[in-house]
Structures are given as structure tokens and as C-alpha cells.
Amino acid sequence: MFKLCQNHGVAKRIAATLPRAFAMKSVSFVLGIFAAAAIMPAAAQNYPWCAQYGGTAGGVMNCGFVSFDQCMATLSGMGGFCNQNTQYQAAKPATSKRIRKNLPTHF
After folding, report:
1. Which of 29, 48, 75, 96 is most exposed by smallest CB count within 10 Å?
2. Same domain, 30 and 54
3. Any idea what DSSP says for residue 88?
């Protein structure tokens, strides 16, 4: 009987520490995700046209348009204007790293 009570106390202590251990692991995991996100550079929008909403006195700028027509269609009915993105950098053409195989000239 005494042994049973003693084991019950151990079980209570283990049960009390499980939620705390789970919480600590969860917090560590979330902090790890935030740290990884902070280290990785954010991909900037790289499009040639910007929409300026709200007129010339401030407002919001969205540089996410591939063409002037797309920018103007977005602004249709809202007001604002489109201008070229001064930070735009055209994509570099992909370089081919093709390996040439020496094929026999006769079979």
C-alpha cells in the first residue's frame, strides 16, 4: 500500500511537468521560426511600373505592375497615376550550363 502511494506521487509530478515541457518546446520552435525568417532576405518586388494612389501629396505606392496598361487599369476609378519604377532591374538572361558530350562521328 505504501509503495502504491509513493508511485502515485511520482506520477503526479511527471504529469505536472509534461505541459511545462511541451510549452517550452513550443516556444523554442516558434522562436526558431522567427529567427530563420529574420535571417532570410525578403524578396523585393521587381516590376517596371508603379502606381501612386492618393494623388501627389503622399499616399501609397505599389510597384507591382508588369506594364503601363496593367497599372492604369488598376487605378481606373480610384485616381492616381503610374510611373516607371526607378528601382527596377531587368532579369538577367539565364545562362546555359549545358555539357557537350563527345558523340562518335560514325557508328
Report:
1. 96
2. no
3. -
Length of the chain: 107
Give the pLDDT means over successive 10-residue stretches in the chain (107 positions): 54 66 71 65 75 77 94 90 90 71 66
For the chain, the distance separating the N- and C-terminal CA atoms, rounded to the nearest angstrom, is 91
pLDDT at 19: 73
Residue 80's nearest CA partner among 49, 107, 37 is: 49
Asked whether residue 9 is assigned to any structural domain, the reply reads: yes
65 in the same domain as 34: no
Report pLDDT for 2: 45
What residue numbers bound the domain in which 35 lies? 1-42
16, 20, 22, 79, 82 from 26: Cα distances, Å: 17, 10, 6, 47, 46
